[in-house]
Amino acid sequence: MHVVILGSSAGGGLPQWNCRCPICTLARTEPHRVRPRTQSSIAISPDGTDWLLVNASPDIRQQLNQTPALHPRKGLRHSPIRAVLLTNGDVDHVAGLLTLREGQLFSLYATAGILDSVNANRVFDVMAEGVVTRSPIRLDEAFEPLPGLRVTLFSVPGKVPLWLEDETMQIGAETETTVGAMIEAGGRRLAYVPGCARVTDGLRARIGGADALLFDGTVLHDDDMIRAGVGTKTGWRMGHVPMRGEGGSVEALADVPLGRRVFVHINNTNPVLIEDSPERRDVEAAGWTVAHDGLALSL
């Protein structure tokens, strides 16, 4: 199985267009210390020829252009992307669908709850019926978006997208609007969980034994944004478990049998983004890799 992390940042990317926090400033002035990053998305292939895109970030055009394996290969119009899978309806995971509107055949997969949010917004009708097939997927039932690639979606604690929040919203609820994916090919297993509000026993059991885990690394501490002085929301309020602190993912997943452990979906205020920081050394010493755009895994 071939895996490419197209975008490793959370919403807004790094540097965020309007942000002068210390980490965004370093990304502009000292990119050898803080690598610029685009918004969250990965691509997976069982054979290096046909690819599944998991989440379609607003930066998808840049990401595809920077990834030769995803370039057109034949004729006047072509793409090796055969399917797209969504793990939630957040803007940083669905806005790129508007870029994939150029009459290119592919299949769009998501739970019914996620597809409902996409279908309710008519701007996504630019993905014309008859060109893009929208297929609802049941939780805990395996399907094959590509030959030789088996995917099972499972619920993880989360919340509805920001643009759908209302007074009935429940943070940490396990529904079909925030999901993880267990992806299998050639006897190898990849667990992809880019958004998760807390680590539960059920989640630990679900991902145990995976050859690689790509996991929500949005914040280091629950109050990252408050510490940085750029916001008032905690990681919990945004639906993201911290790496460290009470209930942190590093400790909560420490005894789960896993192959490679990689943090993805990293917010621009997270100090692990600084290559030479003590925070980066701490999570690396705990066995984690901090993802960057273009990081490739062969499983």
Summarize the topology.
Elements: E1 2-7, H1 22-29, E2 41-45, E3 51-54, H2 60-65, E4 81-85, H3 91-94, E5 106-110, H4 112-119, E6 132-136, E7 143-146, E8 149-158, E9 173-185, E10 188-193, H5 201-207, E11 212-216, H6 224-228, H7 235-238, H8 249-252, E12 260-264, H9 278-285, E13 288-290, E14 296-298
Parallel strand pairs: 3-4, 4-5, 5-6, 10-11, 11-12, 12-13
Antiparallel strand pairs: 1-2, 1-14, 2-3, 7-8, 8-9, 9-10
Largest sheet: 7 strands, mixed
What characteristic shape results from the CA principal axes? globular
User: What's the CATH first level?
Assistant: Alpha Beta
Q: Average pLDDT across residues?
A: 95
Q: Helicity level, as a percent range?
A: 10-25%
Give the DSSP E fraction (strand runs of 2 or more residues).
25-35%
Which fold name is given in CATH as the topology?
Metallo-beta-lactamase, Chain A
Q: Please, how many domains? A: 1
In quaternary terms, these chains amount to single chain
Q: What string gives the helices and strands in order?
A: EHEEHEHEHEEEEEHEHHHEHEE
Concise structural overview:
It holds the Pfam family Lactamase_B_2. It comes from Methylobacterium jeotgali. By secondary structure, the chain is of the alpha/beta class.
